[in-house]
Design a protein that fits this description.
By secondary structure, this protein is an alpha/beta fold. The protein has 16 helices and 9 strands. The chain is globular. It starts with a helix and ends with a helix. It binds coproporphyrinogen III. Homodimer.
């Protein structure tokens, strides 16, 4: 177990990192215990995060390397998770190239001028390292501090980014996005093509700065029917994953409500596929063609009595043994009112239970 390891560990070599349970599981190799981390582990459920963010807008905090390093480290120290996820947001690269947007507390990303025509796409140019010096500085600081714990870099996938840009903000039905997709396929493919270039560029910057794995978040892809996903979206996500494939780090591909899309999301070029809690993990494993999986505890379960949490987690660990690799995670992000002590207990449970075999 590696609880509190980040504070006490001596300097680690690159070999230790490559040998970490998380990276071994991503490659489908045997592990001493099932690795675990939580999507949105860095954030609002931690009082030490809220204290640090006091008076600092979300997107500004992402440009301050000292804050980014500290916020990324907080859950690693508190929970003893097997991987850190870089504190940033899927909207950061768009903001960095000059798109007028903000993250409004309690709402999410809001875009000043929604993009619905070819002319609207003008701000969407490729991202360069010089656009995000704070990302590079933060990741360099983090890899030094993390030692043998891998850092996961991430980007929003073209569809999920497009949804915010076209709708102008969060949306339940993605109606304007789909209207553009069906009604103006020329604009649509230009938009997603540009977003693919940006996502791939942003992932490359993170890996070159020291990230050991990447996750492509297509959070809202589950709103699409499989044939539309394959026709309008998958080629663009495939382009991102293919470019990242040249960098030699594992690629995790994740979305919510993607039960019917899992096979396609795997075939798009994922090394590991994220499975949400609506799909039994055993069924998810059957759909991803022999790849390792990540997931899939319902994020709401942390509010249930501990015996129920333990029973569900044990079931997920058992199901996960059927995959060549399993990374324990929630099926989506940590909910804001989650008690950090429950997550700490869950990490211990996953480590102990899985080590017993
Ligand atoms: C869709 C999406 C976004 N951002 C992200 C996604 C994909 C993951 C998912 O499906 O949840 C990804 C993201 N956003 C954030 C991270 C940091 C790393 C982590 O701990 O996972 C990551 C990986 C920080 C954040 N991003 C945001 C916060 C909350 C800001 C705050 O504390 O004021 C954090 C810590 C804001 C944000 N950013 C976004 C939304 C919808 C919101 C509002 C909802 C919310 O508040 O949780 C867009």
């Amino acid at each position: 177990m590696n609880t509190s390891a980040a504070q006490t560990r001596p300097t680690h070599t690159g070999t230790d990192l490559a040998d970490s349970a998380f990276l071994r599981a991503c490659r489908g190799e045997p592990v001493p215990h099932t690795p675990v981390w939580f999507m949105r582990q860095a954030g609002r459920s931690l009082p030490e995060y809220r204290a640090l963010r006091e008076g600092v807008p979300m997107l500004e905090s992402c440009t301050r390397p000292e804050q980014v390093v500290e916020i990324t480290m907080q859950p690693v120290r508190r929970y003893g998770v097997d991987a850190a996820i870089f504190y940033s947001d899927i909207m950061v690269p768009l903001k960095a190239i000059g798109v007028d947007l903000d993250i409004v507390p309690g709402v999410g990303p809001v875009v000043a001028e929604p993009m619905r025509s070819l002319d609207d796409l003008a701000p969407l140019r490729p991202i360069e390292p010089g656009d995000v010096p704070y990302v590079i500085e933060s990741i360099r600081g983090l890899t030094a501090e993390l030692g043998g714990t891998p850092l996961i870099g991430f980007a929003g996938a073209p569809f999920t980014l497009a949804s915010y840009l076209v709708e102008g903000g969060p949306s339940k039905d993605h109606a304007a996005t789909k209207a553009l997709m069906y009604g103006r396929p020329d604009v649509w493919h230009e938009l997603l093509g540009r977003l693919a270039t940006i996502a791939a560029g942003f992932l490359r910057i993170q890996v070159e700065a020291g990230a050991s794995a990447v996750q492509l978040f297509d959070s809202w892809a589950g709103s699409l029917a499989p044939d539309d996903y394959d026709r309008y979206v998958r080629p663009h996500s495939e382009a991102v994953l293919a470019e990242v494939g040249t960098l030699g780090v594992p690629r995790i591909h994740f979305g919510v409500g993607t039960g019917e899309l899992l096979g396609s999301m795997a075939a798009a070029g994922a090394d590991v596929v994220g499975v949400d809690w609506r799909v039994p993990l055993a069924a998810g494993i059957d759909r991803v063609d022999g790849r390792p999986v990540q997931g899939n505890l319902d994020p709401s379960l942390v509010f249930a009595p501990w015996e129920i949490v333990a029973e569900k987690a044990a079931g997920i660990l058992t199901a996960g043994q059927k995959a060549p690799g399993h990374i324990f995670n929630l099926g989506h992000g940590v909910l804001p009112r989650t008690d950090p002590d429950v997550l700490a207990r869950l990490v211990d449970f996953v480590h102990t239970e899985s080590a017993r075999g």
